[in-house]
Amino acid sequence: MLGVCAVVLIGWALYAAQSVFAPLAFALFIMALVWPLQRRLQRDVPELLALALTMAMTILRKHNEIVRHSLFKNSGKEIKHTGDGIMATFDGPARAVRCADALRDAAANQGMSVRAGLHTGEIELRDTDVTGIAVVIAQRISALAAPNEILASRTVVDLTAGAGLEFESRGEHQLKGVPGTWPTFAAQTIP
User: Which pTM does this prediction carry?
Assistant: First the structure.
């Protein structure tokens, strides 16, 4: 089956971890140095951890809402969560680019960043999952994307000619486990 595979990774994980755990690390350092505050900090650290977990879950829920809305509007199908992202398929590569573009804008409005990798090719359907080299290529391309960047393979660029999309070369890359070098392109819709 020919399909378009998109891997969207959550870009907020690192930033959230830095902003939540940096104060926590500082608090733990102070706890070791200042004995009178030790008991109070021992009581407050679990509360800080609970607060950090609540914040992370709230961000994840909001991210999932944004992704599902963008998928619905662009005829995408959520396949699975990948730990720090979501894998989805589309019935055409232009819809995948438009979905990723809309998702990037919606996430930015919520203070989040996302990155996406897009490729189209043969996929294998396995129950509710998809596998195959197209999935691997999409995943490897998404790993190359910077925060708030949508990267696409040459295949996506070629198949979307005339669809109102813009692509800018990001060079050729060796993708782990994939033969040859692969040109990648930053994608966006034309306003």
Answer: 0.75
